[in-house]
RNA sequence: GGCGCUAUCGUCUAGUGGCUAGGACGCCAGGUUCUCAUCCUGGUAACAGGGGUUCAAUUCCCCUUAGCGCUACCA
């Protein structure tokens, strides 16, 4: 059963909207499989539905995929540019009696289905046009009657082997005479997918499990064309579900890759999360780089049951990824998010004396202390806005540690002030500040550090006073302590 | 309705013909600690039901149930 064909896979989206999570997952698994096996990862644009076509959609999808780290090999195939090819192959089936013209109107088809439904039968084309004579067909076409071409499903049973779901067997009597060519001359998905996968020499089809029921039609088409030997392996992937266990649909909003991107999730985290939905390495590892995913990807480790998209888990994975990133890397990715924040804009305007270099240095310090606190990039600075503004609110109650008196608090703030004043600008490092302050605090840490932290931040919650003073710098730190002392009379 | 697929903690999942059914997220409780976050420790919680097969089934088979998908001149 070993497939010796060169690995060639494709991602084949319809340009009808934004790339959504399910699409990313399909693309990712194709990509991982191709890279793992030294194969090619191709793009095919399935734009055969003119009614749902969305201008610019394809460009945005490609951009989102690139953001996620997926790059295509070779030139894309555009189905709307290949109409003549499909017609040619359909003609071949007609000539061989494997497909037929159908002139039934939508109204007649609807009536037929209604009747079938009433009689509790499976809605299926009744082959009304199957036995039209060649002359009849010719005459109707000459009269300008609209037609489609239908696939004449042969008798028997269709069996195929899916790499995830195993053997699937369907009786042909349950399969409808599928339309292959639409009235407008465009192929349906079923025809185009088979013809193109054959011509593109696709070795494996990774696609969502919603395609499992129509795969027998495709298998039958391969047989009708005599392409059994070239038939790709099928790899259907269990669907991603929403909280109510329905298939995650692009109509629900907030499932588009662009949305997650806009929320500041690192691409590597989204990819990690998506990869683990329906696949797992059978080890304890949870956090993966793209390289690790490629190395460990294995079709035999894919699940058959659908998985629920759990945002809590994504958040955790995202935090883990950010924690593992360098300050430089976070800076590059998070800056665009920071630049949208009002507190940053104000700070940026006020600090006109600072050079761009100095500003970058300051932001990187903030990132250093926020690294372990970020779930996504757009949270940057959110909880530490006192680092962007001098107008901090200090209340005497917040300055006092437990039941310390105002006097104790004043003394402790003065002690801190002294310590910080004695550290030179060149020694103003996180380690130094921490060391010196802790030396002074001795075993009464709260007495010294709590008022200091509050004086520096004006907040009940914040990073440690070491970190905050390190970021603020000597001058600002001293200024804030002095102004806090004014509050404690 | 017809056809197909699926079924382990709330969620993602590991796993085996015999185990205290494992891990992770979440949640809860403790620890570290100047607050917050991180980090550490512990706790919570699952084999859908019924029949078989078997000395023994969560695991293999069948049925039921439930969920999902498909049932378009959409993909």
Architecture overview:
The structure is a single chain. With 489 residues, this protein is mainly α. The protein has 4 domains: 1-76 and 189-324, Rossmann fold; 86-181, Glutamyl-tRNA Synthetase, domain 3, CATH 3.90.800; 327-389, no CATH class; 391-489, Arc Repressor Mutant, subunit A. It has helices spanning 21-36, 57-68, 83-95, 106-118, 134-142, 189-199, 215-225, 257-262, 267-275, 290-296, 311-324, 327-338, 342-350, 356-370, 396-399, 406-421, 430-441, 445-457, 465-472, 474-487; strands at residues 8-11, 40-45, 77-78, 99-102, 148-151, 157-162, 166-171, 179-181, 204-208, 233-237, 240-241, 307-308. The chain has a 3-stranded parallel β-sheet. Strands 4-5-8 form a 3-stranded antiparallel β-sheet. Strand 2 (40-45), helix 2 (57-68) and strand 3 (77-78) form a beta-alpha-beta unit. Helix 18 packs across helix 20. It binds one RNA strand of 75 nucleotides through helix 4, strand 7, helix 6, strand 12 and helix 11.
The total strand number stands at 12
Radius of gyration, CA atoms, in whole angstroms: 32 Å
Distance between the amino and carboxyl termini: 86 Å
Oligomer: single chain
Task: Please name the fourth-level CATH homologous superfamily of the largest domain.
Answer: HUPs
Walk across the major sheet and give the strand order: 1-2-3
- Average pLDDT reading: 93
Total DSSP helices: 20
Helix content: 40-55%
- Tell me, what is the CATH class of the largest domain? Alpha Beta
Main beta-sheet strand count, sense and barrel state: 3 strands, parallel
Shape: elongated
């Amino acid at each position: 059963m070993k497939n010796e064909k060169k690995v060639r896979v494709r991602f084949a989206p319809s340009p009808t909207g934004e790339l959504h999570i399910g699409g990313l997952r399909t693309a990712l698994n194709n990509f991982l499989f191709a890279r793992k096996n030294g194969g090619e990862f191709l793009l095919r644009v399935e734009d055969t539905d003119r009614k749902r076509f969305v201008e610019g959609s394809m460009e945005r999808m490609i951009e989102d995929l690139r953001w996620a780290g997926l790059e295509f090999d070779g030139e894309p195939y555009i189905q709307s540019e290949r109409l003549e090819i499909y017609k040619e192959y359909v003609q071949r089936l007609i000539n061989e009696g494997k497909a037929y013209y159908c002139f039934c109107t939508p109204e007649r088809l609807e009536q037929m289905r209604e009747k079938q439904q009433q009689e509790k039968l499976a809605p299926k084309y009744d082959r009304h046009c199957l036995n039209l004579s060649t002359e009849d067909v010719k005459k109707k076409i000459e009269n300008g009657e609209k037609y489609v071409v239908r696939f004449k499903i042969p008798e028997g049973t269709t069996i195929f082997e899916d790499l995830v779901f195993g053997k699937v067997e369907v009786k042909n009597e349950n399969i409808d005479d599928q339309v292959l060519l639409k009235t407008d001359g465009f192929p349906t998905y079923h025809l185009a997918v088979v013809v193109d996968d054959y011509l593109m020499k696709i070795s494996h089809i990774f696609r969502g499990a919603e395609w499992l029921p129509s795969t027998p039609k495709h298998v039958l088409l391969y047989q009708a064309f005599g392409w059994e030997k070239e038939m790709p392996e099928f790899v259907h992937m269990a669907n991603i579900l929403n909280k109510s266990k329905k298939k995650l649909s692009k109509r629900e909003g907030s499932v588009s890759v662009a949305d997650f991107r806009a929320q500041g999730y690192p691409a590597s985290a989204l990819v990690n999360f998506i990869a683990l939905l329906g696949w797992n390495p059978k080890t304890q590892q949870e956090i993966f780089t793209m390289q690790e995913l490629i190395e460990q990807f294995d079709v035999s480790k894919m699940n058959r049951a659908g998985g629920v998209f759990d945002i809590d888990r994504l958040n955790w994975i995202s935090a883990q990824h950010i924690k593992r990133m360098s300050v430089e890397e976070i800076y590059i990715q998070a800056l665009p998010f920071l630049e949208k924040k009002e507190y940053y804009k104000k700070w940026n305007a006020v600090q006109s004396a600072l050079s761009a270099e100095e500003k970058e240095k300051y932001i990187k310090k903030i990132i250093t202390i926020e690294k372990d606190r970020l779930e996504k990039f757009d949270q940057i600075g959110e909880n530490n806005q006192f680092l962007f503004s001098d107008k901090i609110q200090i209340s005497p109650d917040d300055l006092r540690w437990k039941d310390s008196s105002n006097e104790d608090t004043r003394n402790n703030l003065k002690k801190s002030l002294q310590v910080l004043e004695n550290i030179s600008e060149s020694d103003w490092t996180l380690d130094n500040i921490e060391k010196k302050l802790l030396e002074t605090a001795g075993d009464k840490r709260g007495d010294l550090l709590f008022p200091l932290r509050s004086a520096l931040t004006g907040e009940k919650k914040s990073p440690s006073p070491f970190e905050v003073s390190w970021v603020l710098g000597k001058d600002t730190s001293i200024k804030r302590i002095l102004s806090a002392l004014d509050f404690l009379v």
